[in-house]
Design a protein that fits this description.
This protein is of the alpha+beta class and 134 residues long. The chain is built from 3 helices and 8 strands. The termini are far apart.
Length: 134
């Protein structure tokens, strides 16, 4: 069992102990891992955007620009340089709660003068994915 942070779309973050073998069940499909910060990794459904899973949280760079918007449930875990999974530390939990604790909405991802719906964002993501894989 490892201590992880579970982020479901539209819900506050939840910290709990999970079995790493259950990550696929938590993300509802084949997990894809990314390591946006040293010492942590994020698991999401690798086909989440393609399947139209609800958009969840954004990943913001040091310059404040959005790097990615994750779709579906996210599982955040600790990991080392060899990409081995382990529990989040107390310090990581505090930091991650500050970054990801609150749910996000499409309004959080666009300029104030732009009016986009969740469907608009999915359509835009679909167009980007189509261009990327064409």
């Amino acid at each position: 069992m490892v201590r992880a942070m579970i982020l479901e779309p539209g819900k506050h973050a939840e910290v709990r102990f999970i079995c790493p073998k259950k990550i696929a069940e938590l993300v509802d499909g084949c997990p894809e891992f990314t390591a946006p910060h040293k010492g942590i990794c994020i698991a999401v459904n690798e086909e989440g955007k393609i399947k139209g899973l609800p958009l969840n949280r954004s990943l913001v760079g040091d310059d404040g620009e959005i790097l990615d918007i994750f779709a579906g449930t996210m599982v955040i875990l600790g990991c080392n340089e060899e990409e081995e999974i382990h529990s989040l530390t107390d310090e990581q939990v505090v930091s991650l709660l500050a970054e990801f604790g609150e749910p996000e909405t499409p309004d959080d991802w666009v300029e104030d003068d732009i009016d986009l719906t969740r469907e608009d964002l999915h359509r835009i993501l679909d167009e980007v994915i189509d261009k990327f894989f064409s």
